[in-house]
Write a structure and sequence with these properties.
Largest sheet of chain A: 6 strands, mixed
Oligomer: heterodimer
Helix content of chain B: over 70%
Radius of gyration of chain A: 17 Å
Strand order of the largest sheet of chain A: 5-6-7-3-8-9
Structural class of chain B: mainly alpha
Largest interface: A-B, 21 and 19 residues
Structural class of chain A: alpha/beta
Helix content of chain A: 25-40%
Radius of gyration of chain B: 22 Å
Shape of chain B: globular
Number of helices of chain B: 10
Largest sheet of chain B: none
Order of helices and strands of chain A: EEEHEEHHHEHEHEE
Strand content of chain A: 25-35%
Distance between the termini of chain B: 23 Å
Strand content of chain B: under 5%
Chain lengths: ~200, ~250
């Protein structure tokens, strides 16, 4: 089902974050929002996640469908290990299946340790693994590859490509090469009108 | 190891000072030394009445604590989930917190008699602490994690266990630390006023009537020891349930 965003507007304390944003995301497509900080990328994703209500406009094609997210912060349960964090959002996956998934992005000796002992980059990878492993039909990722060094970033991008399974992906980034690597259609920010348009 | 030696040294130093002071005063009615206290305690411990009093007081105070603990967590969670319930409860909690324990003791004596006095009083002292700290702990749960749980549709039980429980743990533990000491102090004080049969409070009251200061000191030492053991026991249980979050 195509995801349609119609004339979405949002402001905080009468200061507009964005106005009249209209986007169309086809089922199974990969889309990237590129804009400087403060352009409302995170706010737009939060509205799609159902965490905030827009001031005006509407979203179609999202009703009740499970969403999978990578937030700007990692948002992990620090006392759990990587598998525990993933089990929290997907309690049905088997141990062997999970183990294999984790090894795609994490070193084997880290698997038994609580996430609290992980470096920033490793935590980012866990939140990416969690999002890909959950059964969400629409993937909304806020700067998912942030804080990963070059080699790991490549691995992570490949992992997302491999595990996406034709699910719609909308992500934000500051790096053009991430959008290219994922063959994403680009939405760029039109500064003056505070709106997004599709890059041709 | 060094700290153990130092601490033991400090305690011995104070005990010696206490003993010296009691020798200086030379009036056992006013002050008995640690040695006399120990002698009185061993003498008392040889009597079945001592253990009867210890057990019945511990059972009463423990019952009050356990009920307050469970109901405090239950009401605190309900107030967090339904703010209106919290608002309804708020004046009651303020009332319980501000009414002097002595007034409660008299009231409880009239309502329930001396037998349940210590339970009622330790309940009333502990309940507001657990209630308020449960609420504060739940409110301290990471909003980012709660949003994550909402987006990923994490089920209720795992959400409680993995997001709320770690947030609650430090609040509940610090509340228990204070509440455990308070419930023994106020529970025994209530018993002294109500003097229920076979209770530590009754024994303390008798010690006062007969001017047996050594027994007063011995019973006091027994209460301190009981309170300490009770705290260890409760904390061991709590740490087991609250897990890693309690380590902080």
């Amino acid at each position: 089902m195509t995801l349609r965003i119609h004339n979405l507007s949002k402001s905080y304390d009468h200061i507009p974050v964005f106005q009249n944003v209209s986007l169309e995301l086809e089922e199974g497509g990969v889309y990237c929002l590129m804009a400087p900080s403060g352009a409302g990328k995170t706010t737009l994703l939060r509205i799609l996640m159902g965490l905030e209500a827009p001031d005006a406009g509407r979203v179609e094609g999202l009703d009740g469908r499970p969403i999978s997210a990578v937030f700007q912060e990692d948002r992990l349960c620090l006392h759990l290990n990587a598998a525990g964090n993933i089990r929290l959002v997907d309690p049905v996956c088997s141990d062997a299946e999970l183990q294999e998934e984790l090894l795609a992005l994490l070193p084997a000796d880290s698997l038994s340790k609580p996430v609290s002992s992980f470096s920033g980059g490793m935590r980012r990878r866990v939140s990416l693994l969690r999002a890909m492993q959950s059964r969400g039909e629409i993937l909304l990722f806020d700067e998912p590859f942030n804080g990963l060094d070059e080699q790991i970033r490549q691995d992570a991008i490949q992992y997302v490509q491999k595990r996406r399974n034709h699910r719609t992906l909308l992500f934000t980034t500051h790096h053009m090469e991430e959008a290219r690597a994922l063959k994403a259609s680009l939405f760029v920010w039109d500064g003056e009108a505070l709106s997004w348009h599709k890059d041709s | 190891m060094e700290t153990i030696v130092r601490r033991t040294g400090i305690v011995l130093c104070w005990l010696a000072l206490w003993q010296a002071l009691s020798w200086l005063v030379r009036r056992p009615v006013f002050l008995v030394g640690p040695w006399e206290t120990l002698l009185a305690l061993t003498r008392l411990a040889g009597q079945p009445a001592f253990w009867q009093a210890v057990c019945s007081s511990a059972a009463r105070i423990g019952t009050g604590f356990a009920l307050a603990f469970l109901l405090g967590i239950l009401c605190g969670s309900a107030a967090y989930a339904r703010p209106l319930f919290g608002e309804m409860l708020s004046p009651v909690i303020t009332l319980i917190k501000t009414i002097p324990v002595a007034s409660f003791v008299i009231l409880a004596l009239i309502w329930t008699g001396a037998d349940h006095l210590a339970s009622v009083i330790s309940f009333l002292v502990v309940f507001p602490m657990i209630y308020l700290n449960t609420r504060a702990g739940l409110e301290a749960a990471d909003p980012g994690l709660l949003e994550m749980a909402q987006v990923f549709r994490v089920r209720r039980l795992p959400k409680i266990w993995h997001i709320y429980r770690p947030a609650l743990a430090p609040f509940l533990l610090s509340a228990c630390r204070v509440a455990l000491g308070m419930c023994w102090k106020s529970g025994v004080a209530a018993e002294v006023i109500g003097t229920p049969d076979h209770s530590i409070g009754e024994k303390l009251y008798m010690a006062k009537i007969f001017f047996s200061t050594d027994e007063l000191f011995a019973w006091t030492a027994a209460v301190i020891l009981l309170s300490f053991l009770f705290e260890k026991l409760v904390f061991r249980l709590l740490r087991r349930v609250l897990g890693d979050g309690a380590a902080a």
